Amino acid sequence: MTEADVRPVADQQVFRDVIGRFTSGVTVITTAVDDGRFGTTASAFSSLSMEPPMVLVCLNKTSETQAAVMKAGAFVVNILAEGQQDLAYRFARKGDKFADLDHDVGRHGVPVLQGTLARLECEVGETVTGGTHTVFLAHVTVAAGHDGTPLTYYRGRFGRLESVREEEAYQAVRGYVLARRCPLDRPLEPAK
Fold it and tell me: How far is residue 66 from each of residues 135, 166, 175, 176, measured CA to CA in Å?
């Protein structure tokens, strides 16, 4: 018996619940191979290195997109913006995800989704197996970002990122109005 055979393992349901408490951004990984376009929604994405610029993406070994990335050796990380949950749902399902979807074509002929917060065009450098997933360690060849806020994922739901200060200001103004410290027919006068 080896040490690995006796290593304690967390209960899967508890693990899923705990991991669900980690807020992440939402990405769609796209690729193209043999005249086919592939894509999947993924939150298992992270920057890996600045020198050279690298990222890591984890895709389930049973995924069509995983097999296509393995064959193509290239993919795009499309970082979704607030309000793009329909795009996240589209790429989380089976079927032709690109039907009636406008997109651009990036380096290596890989689909680039339009209107996203950012994109990273990547070439696979190495792969590692981790449980049920393939971990792609990839070199970033093109990086582009746009103004906006990210789509977030927390406890099985999509959401948005809010600045703590904006929320504090909103709550202060709300309290001011609800406490009737300012007549409803007069504009709020900010403190000087």
Answer: 10, 40, 50, 53
Q: How many residues are given for the chain?
A: 192
The tens digit of pLDDT for each residue in 16-43 reads: 777 666 567 899 999 999 989 999 999 8
Amino acid at 7: R
Dihedral (Cα; 121, 144, 77, 147), 10-degree rounding: -170
Q: d(Cα 72, Cα 36) in Å, to the nearest integer? A: 11
Tens of pLDDT, residues 137-174: 999 999 999 999 999 877 777 677 666 566 666 677 77
Three-class SS of residue 173? helix
Rounded CA separation 136/66 (Å): 9
Element holding 85 (H helix, E strand)? helix 85-92
pLDDT at position 111: 96
Q: Which residues contact 88 (CB under 8 A, 6 or more apart)?
A: 26, 28, 41, 80, 151, 153, 158
Where does 2-117 show beta strands of DSSP type E?
A: 24-25, 27-33, 36-42, 45-50, 53-60, 74-79, 103-105, 111-113
Does position 113 have pLDDT exceeding 60, yes or no?
A: yes
